[in-house]
Design brief:
Rossmann fold; two-stranded antiparallel ribbon; globular; six-stranded parallel beta sheet; alpha/beta
């Protein structure tokens, strides 16, 4: 069974904050957000992001507002996103080394595919999931397991890369090796409990390979 690298879209794989910020700032009568504010709001799925944004501005996160947010975001998703550092060449090297690459996202699957295809990830990924791929708002551990299954991967042959405490917690709960993305949106204090810390994406290749080496008894 091939080794699998499972990467969180928002923050670890792609900087999506500019597009999310632009979409939030199109909502009326929501006072505008800075990109720094939006980065701090990212965790879970887009509905939870919108809920935090509304709470921060004393607004109500209604279904109408959620639809409007997604409609605006579809216009900004690709132009307002960019791959992290050397992520693309690193993933190509890992694939050449026999790794399967999978992505999980807190965004809807259609938007996730739009971003990945628009930024040059086409043909690199063995599985992709959004917050709606496996039913209504699965928990992070549920989505991670289902995405690994879609990639035909076993837990003991997989490493996840994330930038939030919820990713570290999910990995520990599932018995998965976890690399904390130090370049992401979460503060470094959230790395506590991760298997390893990377400060640039190019370090993921070597770290992931070492994490899956047989442990000496």
């Amino acid at each position: 069974m091939p080794r699998t690298l499972l990467v969180d879209l928002d923050g670890a794989l792609v900087d999506t904050v500019p597009g999310l910020t632009a979409a939030l700032n199109r909502l009326e009568p929501m006072p505008p957000f800075s990109q720094e504010e939006v980065a701090r709001l990212i965790a879970g799925n887009v509905a939870e992001l919108l809920g935090r944004a509304c709470a921060a501005r004393r607004q109500i996160a209604s279904p109408r507002l959620h639809k409007a947010f997604l409609d605006h975001y579809r216009s900004y998703a690709v132009a307002g996103s960019r791959p992290r550092g050397d992520v693309l060449p690193t993933l190509r090297r890992m694939i050449a080394d026999g790794w399967t690459i999978a992505v999980w996202s807190g965004q809807p699957e259609d938007i996730t595919h739009t971003i990945l295809n628009g930024l040059g990830f086409s043909g690199l990924l063995g599985a992709v999931s959004g917050c709606d791929t496996f039913g209504v708002s699965p928990s992070v551990p549920q989505q991670v397991l289902a995405t690994l299954a879609a990639a035909d991967s076993a837990v003991d042959e997989a490493v996840i890369v994330g930038d939030h405490a919820e990713h570290v917690s999910a990995a520990r709960r599932l018995g998965l090796a976890c690399i904390f993305a130090g370049w992401g949106y979460g503060p470094l204090s959230m790395a506590a409990g991760a298997s390893a810390l990377a400060m640039v994406f190019s370090d993921v290749h070597g770290l992931a390979a070492r994490l899956l080496l047989p442990q000496e008894v």
